[in-house]
């Protein structure tokens, strides 16, 4: 690994700020009977989502999405997508939780699939944004931290070939040494 980009403390502060923004935005829109439906994208967003959920002050329901395109490498391939049934999402306020928005291809396909479910609203929250590699136009309703340049990051749920997810910080790794 080359260096730590965001420390555990910086991430915790950012998650707290995102939770406050999300709670403020959705407070007039959701209720116990109609909670906000959080859609963490597995596997990368599981740690971010767990930390975020505990700080939200609005009622939530959690449904997990599974999206995989990297397999064991650092180059994105064909996307495999597993989304809960449309009947569970129709008419609900949906918030996709992503660890990182990179090219935007994965979240674009997720958005397309979720729009077919006819939600009341559909937004994206990402802990990290890496605009240098964006190829699909993505509008983030809630965005945490920005990764400058084209760096491959690991930690806080993000991996390289299923390694490094457990790191409590976000770090840059030199993929040439892998």
Automatic annotation (TrEMBL):
Record keywords: Cytoplasm, Glycosyltransferase, Magnesium, Metal-binding, Nucleotide-binding, Purine salvage, Transferase
GO cellular component terms, A-Z: cytosol
Pathway(s) annotated for this protein in UniProt: Purine metabolism; GMP biosynthesis via salvage pathway; GMP from guanine: step 1/1; Purine metabolism; IMP biosynthesis via salvage pathway; IMP from hypoxanthine: step 1/1
GO biological process per UniProt: GMP salvage; guanine salvage; hypoxanthine metabolic process; IMP salvage; purine ribonucleoside salvage
CDD domains per the UniProt record, alphabetical: PRTases_typeI
Metal-binding found in the keyword field: yes
Keyword Disulfide bond: no
Transmembrane regions listed in the UniProt entry: none
EC number: 2.4.2.8
Entry's family note: Belongs to the purine/pyrimidine phosphoribosyltransferase family.
PANTHER family: HYPOXANTHINE PHOSPHORIBOSYLTRANSFERASE (PTHR43340:SF1), HYPOXANTHINE-GUANINE PHOSPHORIBOSYLTRANSFERASE (PTHR43340)
Entry protein name: Hypoxanthine phosphoribosyltransferase
Lineage: Bacteria, Bacillati, Cyanobacteriota, Cyanophyceae, Gloeobacterales
